[in-house]
DNA sequence: CTGAAAGCGCTAACAT
DNA sequence: ATGTTAGCGCTTTCAG
C-alpha cells in the first residue's frame, strides 16, 4: 500500500539493493568498490560476491552528480577517416584508460561550428577535461570552455595563444624543412598541392612559400582545393600540375593520401618518379612506405602527440601547474624513393 | 551562519540559479528548455536570455538520473584504423544525432575481452542502447547486456542467434560469390590470403573454400596470419604465395589493404596484374579504385549498415517491436582491372 | 572500520 | 501555463 508519488527508477540493481542484501549501509558497499582497503576483508568479499551474483553495475551518472567528478575527458578530432587521427586517438585512449578515465570521442568534420556543438554536448556530460585538435575554435566554444573551467589541451599544432597548453609540432617549420630538402636535392620548380586546406595544411603551405622565397624561387606552382583529400584528388591534382607546368621538378603534396594518389597516376601515365618528377607527401602514414616507388614524406609524431596530450591533461586534472605551455614534439623528413 | 554539512557542488551555473534570477521555479526553466511550447512566449524569451547571459549548461548526469534515460547509445567497433568502420561510425552518428542521441564510441582492438570491458563501462553511463560489431561476444558481455535490459543491435554480419537484431550481409556468401567470379573467369588455382582473421574474415575464407569445393578445385593455396592487416603484410603474403606456388592464377585477399599491398609488390616484382596473376580484395575502400591496376573487390554497404543499425535501434528505443531480426543489406562484386 | 544524514542538479508526478 | 514536492543513485560530511 505504499503508493503515492511513485517514480519509475531504472529498474536496475542499485547500490542500495546490494547494501540491503548484504545487511550493511550503502556507503560501505561504495567503499568496498572504490576504496577496498577501508573495508574489512571478510565484508569486502561478501559484498563482492553479492555484486557479482546480482550483476550490479554502478550508475556513473549518480556518482558523477554526487562527487562532481565524471572521470571522463572529451577528445575532439576533425575526422575519423583521416588516418592521422586514429593514432592520436589511440595514444590518448591508452594513457587515459590506464588512469581510470573514459575518453568521449567526437569528430567535427573539420567544422568549427560542429566542434562548438560537440564541446557543448560534452560539457553537459560534465567532462573533467577537454582535448582539442588545432587552435581554431569559435568564440562561443572558447567562452564555454572558459566558463566551464575545465583544463584544455590543444594538439597537433603549436598555437600562438593556447587556450590551455598545446602539444604538437611546428607545421610551418615542417613545410619549410621538407621544401628545403627538395631544394637541396637541386630542384627549382617545386609545386605545392593541397586539398581540404585546414589550418595545419595552410601552415605547411606557408612553410613551402617561405622556403621558396628564401631560395629565390618562384611560388607560382600552386594548386589547392577545399574539397576533401583522397587518392583520387591526388591523381587529379597531379594531372592538373603536369598539364599546366610540364617542366615541373617536384611536387609537395600536403598529405600522404594525395601524394599516394599522385604516385598511382604517375604509374598510369608512365611518368617515372623520381627521375622525371619528384613527389613528397606529409605524415608518414603506413601507405608511404609501401607504394612503388616508396614515398618521401615528413614523419609526424601522432601517437606521441596523443600520449603526451593525455599526460599533460592528467597533470592539470591533478591540479598541477603547467610547466610548459607549448610542447614541441618535432618531426622528421623521411627520405625514400620518390624524391 | 549557514554552515553545517556544506557540499562542494560543481561551482557551475545550475538550473536553480537561472530559476532564481528569472524569478520562476526550476521546472519552468526545465520546460523552457525541453518543451518550449509549454511555456509562455514572454517567459521563455526571458529565460533563454538569462541562460545565454550566464552561459548555463545543463548537467546531463543529473538529467539522466532524474529521468532514467541518458539519450546516449554505445557503439563498439573493433578498430578505428580499419577504414571499414569509419563509415559505419559516420552512418550511426548521423542518424543518432538527428534524433538527439549522443553516440559513445569505443574500440575493442579486436578483443572480445576488451569489448566486454567497454560494454561494462558504457552500461555504467546508462546508455539507452548498444550497437556492437559482429556476433562474437564473451558470456559475461551477453549476460550484462541481458540484465541491463537495453536494446542491442549487432552489425556487419548476420548472426545465427542475434542478441537483439542484426544488420549486415552474409560474409560467407560474399566470399563464395567473389570466388565464383574468379572461377567463371577461368581461374583454377585460386589462393586465399588473410590477416587478422577475425570472425568475418573467417567466414569469407569459408565462402572461398565452399566455392572451390563446389567447383572441384583444390583449397590448398591458403595462407593466413593472425597479425594485423597492412599494406606490408599484403606484400609479404604475395611474396610467400608466388614463392610457394609460382603457377597460381589468382589470389583472393581478405581485405583491400592486403590486396593493395600485393598490387604494390607486384609492381616492384614486375608481375603483370591481371595477365600473370589476378588479385582481388574485399570492401571496396577508396584505395581500390585508385591503384594501378585498379582493384577488383567486393563492395560492402558499410555506411548503410551504420545508418540502418541506428534506425533499427531507434525503433527499439521507442518501444517498437522488431519486425525482422536479421536485416541483410547485401554486397556487390565490383569488377575492375586486377581480375 | 562502519554508519546516518544530507544533498549533488535535475525531472516525474501531482497539483493549481 | 506554472508551481510543489519528492526522489533518481550515488558520495560527501560528520560521527562513532
Automatic annotation (TrEMBL), chains A, B:
Family annotation (SUPFAM superfamilies): lambda repressor-like DNA-binding domains (SSF47413), Periplasmic binding protein-like I (SSF53822)
GO MF annotations in UniProt: DNA binding
UniProt-listed PROSITE patterns: HTH_LACI_1, HTH_LACI_2
Keywords, in A-Z order: DNA-binding, Transcription, Transcription regulation
Pfam families assigned to the protein according to its UniProt record, in alphabetical order: LacI (PF00356), Peripla_BP_3 (PF13377)
Positions of the HTH lacI-type domain: 13-67
Domain of life: Bacteria
Listed name of the protein: LacI family DNA-binding transcriptional regulator
Originating organism: Corallincola platygyrae
Amino acid at each position: 500500500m505504499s503508493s503515492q508519488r511513485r517514480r519509475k527508477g531504472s529498474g536496475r540493481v542499485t547500490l542500495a539493493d546490494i547494501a540491503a542484501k548484504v545487511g550493511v549501509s550503502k556507503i560501505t558497499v561504495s567503499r568496498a568498490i572504490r576504496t577496498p582497503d577501508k573495508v574489512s576483508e571478510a565484508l569486502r568479499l561478501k559484498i563482492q560476491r553479492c555484486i557479482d551474483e546480482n550483476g550490479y553495475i554502478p550508475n556513473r551518472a549518480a556518482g558523477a552528480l554526487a562527487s562532481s567528478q565524471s572521470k571522463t575527458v572529451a577528445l575532439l578530432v576533425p575526422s575519423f577517416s583521416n588516418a592521422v587521427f586514429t593514432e592520436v586517438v589511440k595514444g590518448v585512449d591508452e594513457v587515459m584508460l590506464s588512469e581510470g578515465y573514459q575518453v568521449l570521442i567526437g569528430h567535427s568534420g573539420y567544422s568549427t561550428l560542429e566542434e562548438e556543438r560537440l564541446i557543448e554536448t560534452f560539457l553537459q556530460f560534465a567532462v573533467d577535461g577537454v582535448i582539442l585538435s588545432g587552435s581554431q575554435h569559435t568564440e562561443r566554444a572558447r567562452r564555454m570552455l572558459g566558463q566551464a573551467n575545465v583544463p584544455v589541451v590543444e594538439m597537433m599544432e603549436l598555437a600562438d595563444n593556447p587556450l590551455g597548453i598545446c602539444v604538437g609540432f611546428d607545421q610551418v617549420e615542417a613545410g619549410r624543412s621538407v621544401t628545403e630538402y627538395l631544394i637541396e636535392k637541386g630542384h627549382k620548380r617545386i609545386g605545392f598541392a593541397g586539398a581540404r586546406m585546414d589550418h595545419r595544411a595552410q601552415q605547411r603551405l606557408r612553410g613551402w612559400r617561405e622556403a621558396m622565397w628564401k631560395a629565390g624561387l618562384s611560388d607560382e606552382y600552386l594548386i589547392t582545393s577545399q574539397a576533401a583529400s583522397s587518392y583520387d584528388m591526388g591523381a587529379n591534382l597531379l594531372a592538373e600540375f603536369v598539364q599546366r607546368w610540364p617542366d615541373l621538378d617536384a611536387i609537395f603534396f600536403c598529405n600522404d593520401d594525395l601524394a599516394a594518389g599522385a604516385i598511382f597516376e604517375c604509374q598510369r601515365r608512365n611518368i617515372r618518379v623520381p627521375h622525371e618528377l619528384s613527389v613528397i607527401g606529409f605524415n608518414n602514414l603506413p601507405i608511404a612506405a609501401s607504394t612503388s616507388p616508396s614515398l618521401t614524406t615528413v614523419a609526424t609524431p601522432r601517437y606521441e602527440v596523443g600520449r603526451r596530450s593525455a599526460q599533460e591533461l592528467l597533470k592539470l586534472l591533478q591540479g598541477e601547474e603547467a610547466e610548459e605551455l607549448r610542447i614541441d614534439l618535432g618531426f622528421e623528413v623521411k627520405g625514400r624513393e620518390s624524391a
